[in-house]
Design goal:
CATH class of the largest domain: Mainly Beta
Strand content: over 45%
Distance between the termini: 60 Å
Structural class: mainly beta
CATH topology of the largest domain: Maltoporin, Chain A
Largest sheet: 22 strands, antiparallel, barrel
Number of strands: 46
CATH architecture of the largest domain: Beta Barrel
CATH superfamily of the largest domain: TonB-dependent receptor, beta-barrel domain
Number of domains: 2
Number of helices: 5
Shape: globular
Length: about 750
């Protein structure tokens, strides 16, 4: 006892720190559990795979590293007084999970973070969910609580009453302005082969994120295999994909490419059948990353994104082109990241990013140039962001940083060989943040306090966004959370986010004459872990909006001048429930949301078209037993959902009004309609069952798999919207169904 007192008195402490990675490919393992045997000291890797254990008394220890799906390892170490021991380790994937010694990343995060409304996505979850044609990250996010879709084919994200432009979407630090561009929103920008993991903050997100009112979706690409050269080829009905990765001197790389081939298939059909048909549309994605590690303390990464849709069409008359339409839109970006361990307690990242979202339309009348049209809109932004973590001790962590963004938005419309309009906007935002996480009572009570001061260049305005969160561990497996925060947004779309279909968006900065849109989040949470792989959460929330800039009801598809946006406010209130089970052979989740969303416009409240009252998703998958032939050891998964109808507007009646026609001999008339209240009616209940079957195989000596998906198994006809045909007498109300029958798709993957 006397010896222990002397050790404490003279502060004879050391520390151990380092990175944890996958031994098979070098990928960093986030939220790995690390602890010293026969002690209460431990830690976990952060979202970059880095860890540090503070205040270790001098002496010999056994340190244990464990992560679900990997073999735990134990190392003997000696910690010296006032010194840090750097220990980087690699864990081997295990064939048999040992429940007693592995702790999942989500479980470790539950124990060591103060956050609400946060969900992580792994590649397995993205690719195992039933899908239309291929796995898609956005489609998986849509199965989470609090996320609403407008119809069966929509790839937009409406999170807790927010419109899609209220979501901050990042890919390795690159801002992705429209992640759902392909095929009218059916496919997202993110090639599933390139995704390492993704994080969704459905609300209450921390101070390092800003400039959005509702949510954050942060996507991190795979690091790339640093051990050997590998690759994969995937061929499906609509697209084909290629993945290459491998080591380079002091680093590694990954390249992922995807292309659709509607145009090629139709071209082949035309050649064989001699039919005059064509489908001149395709899209492609290209994602790449290169890592370079000059030393243990420094790591550089450069990542790039190119995602484009192209439609090129010619109207022929007697084999001579008379008209030509070229349409191109998409996301592009580039980021350079420098990660450095300045000291064992001080870790930082500096990111420089360039992002571009473009829309180009050119119409040429080759016989009459007076009809030509050229429209383009481009948003280009340059971002510099510095994030630093200071691990003060095991009970206090400080995070701080600075972010500067310059955005340039240019658009013009050349019509009839004249410049109809041409405008440019520049926007500058400078933000700093500081955030601290403090364990008031270790392993029981912790708080997280953040502050984000922001300078906005339009009108030289200063904004202060505070954030606060608290977590109380009632029991080792039970926690109560609470978070509040203020959020501001300076860039928004001026086309309606309530449209059923949207190919591209038109972004504009909030000008100097307009108030800055603001939201306030208040979220409570209860989280219960039944075992290491099963968790249940329930989160009531309330979100209040001020200074919303809303397009008028008729501005559905195209942009309007920024000053025509109408000032409004609103709120969203609801409760989200989430039950998730993850095992080697069984996985699945149940998500349910009860939500109410209102907007106030010109003194009247209305429900926007994405206000869905009840939303239930059930996802279940399992490994098929060996006793079943042909598909033994394959994976079968299903998705079932029920959702109450969305609001819509409806005409109540129409009438004829007569007027005198001076050029005629009698009165004339026109029809006029009496419209109902804005979005005052509801579509019928929607529900659907999808299934996915995947089986490993070997072909040409290569490992691979084949898969079959069936969407809308029992042929449910969900109504997406109504229209009124006034050419009929009496007028006829028509319903539109996007999935009129079950849709099968199949494909296969090869790994080499």
């Amino acid at each position: 006892m006397y010896l222990i007192s002397l050790v404490i008195l003279f502060n004879a402490y050391g520390s151990v720190s380092g990175f944890v990675a996958d031994a098979s490919n070098g990928e960093r393992l986030v939220y790995t559990n690390i602890y010293l045997k026969n002690s209460t000291l431990g830690s976990a890797t952060n979202d970059k795979g880095y860890y540090i254990i503070h205040k270790i008394p001098q002496g010999s220890y056994e340190i244990v590293f464990s992560y679900v799906g990997y073999e735990s390892i134990t190392r003997e170490i000696f910690v010296e007084e006032n010194k840090n021991l750097t220990l980087n380790v690699e864990l081997k994937p295990s064939l048999i999970e040992v429940e007693e010694v592995t702790v999942s990343a989500e479980r470790t995060r539950f124990e060591r973070t103060v956050e609400v409304s946060h969900i992580m996505f792994t590649p397995r979850e993205i690719t195992s969910v039933p899908r239309l044609f291929e796995g898609d990250l956005i489609k998986t996010v849509q199965l989470m609580p609090g996320v609403v879709t407008m119809h069966d084919l929509s790839n937009k994200l409406h999170v807790r009453g927010g419109s899609p432009d209220e979501n901050l979407v990042l890919l390795d630090g690159i801002t992705v302005y429209n992640p759902s561009t392909h095929l009218g929103g059916l496919f997202s920008t993110f090639n599933p082969d390139a995704v390492g993991y993704a994080e969704l903050y459905a609300g209450g997100f921390p101070a390092q994120y800003g400039d959005r009112l509702s949510s954050v979706l942060s996507v991190n690409t795979k690091e790339g295999n640093s051990k050997e050269y590998t690759g994969a080829v995937s061929i499906g009905l609509i697209t084909s994909r290629l993945l290459l990765e491998g080591p380079i001197p002091r680093g590694n790389f990954i390249i992922s490419a995807r292309r659709s081939y509607f145009d090629a298939l139709v071209w082949l059909y035309d050649k064989f059948r001699s039919d005059d048909v064509s489908l001149p549309y395709y899209f492609y994605d290209f994602i790449a990353k290169v890592n370079f590690n000059p030393s243990q303390e420094n790591r550089f990464a450069i990542a790039g994104l190119a995602s484009t849709d192209i439609l090129s069409f010619q109207e022929l008359e007697a084999d001579v082109a008379e008209e030509k339409i070229d349409l191109e839109w998409g996301n592009r970006g580039l980021s350079l990241r420098w990660r450095r361990v300045f000291t064992p307690q001080f870790y930082g990242e500096i990111i420089g990013a360039w992002s571009n979202f473009l829309t180009h339309l050119r119409y040429e009348d080759l016989s009459d140039t007076a009809e030509n049209l050229n429209l383009y809109e481009d948003i280009i932004d340059y971002t510099i962001k510095c994030d630093f973590d200071y691990f003060w001790d095991e009970n206090l962590t400080m995070e701080f940083g600075i972010e500067g963004k310059h955005s340039h938005i240019g658009y013009n419309w050349d019509f009839v060989e004249e410049l109809f309009f041409e405008t440019e906007h520049d926007m500058n935002v400078l933000a700093t943040y500081i955030q601290s996480k403090l364990y008031l009572v270790p392993n029981i009570l912790s708080i997280q306090v953040g502050l984000r001061p922001i300078f906005y260049g339009e009108g030289n305005r200063f904004v202060l966004d505070p954030r606060f969160g608290i977590k109380y561990l009632v029991k080792p497996n039970t926690a109560v959370n609470f978070a509040v925060g203020k959020y501001s947004q300076f860039l928004l779309t001026i086309n309606s986010q309530e449209s059923y279909f949207s190919v591209f968006d038109f972004w504009r900065p909030v000008d100097a004459t307009q108030e800055i849109p603001t939201s306030y989040h208040a979220i409570a949470g209860f989280e219960q872990w039944f075992d290491e792989k099963t968790k249940f959460t329930i989160e009531p929330y309330y979100k209040k909006y001020y200074n919303l800039l809303i397009p008028t009801e008729d501005d559905i598809f195209f942009s309007t001048p920024t000053e025509s946006l109408q000032l409004g406010e609103g709120y969203a209130v609801g409760v989200d429930l989430f039950l998730k089970k993850t095992l080697k052979d069984v996985f699945g989740w149940i998500s349910y949301s009860l939500s109410f969303t209102k907007r106030k416009f010109q003194g009247n409240y209305y429900s926007p078209r994405y206000d869905r009252r009840h939303n239930l998703n059930i996802v279940f998958g399992f490994t098929i037993p060996r006793s079943i032939p042909l598909v033994r050891n394959g994976t079968l998964s299903a998705r079932l959902y029920f959702a109450t109808g969305l609001p819509y507007a409806q005409d109540l009646a129409r009438y004829r009004y007569y007027f005198w026609n001076p050029g005629g001999i009698a009165t004339d008339y026109e029809w006029a309609t009496i419209s109902g209240a804005r979005d005052a009616y509801r579509l019928p209940l929607s529900h659907r069952l999808d299934i996915h079957l995947e089986k490993n195989m070997r072909i040409f000596g290569l490992e691979g798999s084949w898969y079959v998906d069936v969407i809308n198994v029992y042929n449910r006809k969900n109504i997406a919207f109504y229209t009124v045909d006034y050419d009929e007498d009496p007028p006829e109300i028509r319903s539109y169904v996007l999935l009129r029958w079950p849709i099968p798709s199949f494909g296969f993957n090869l790994r080499f």
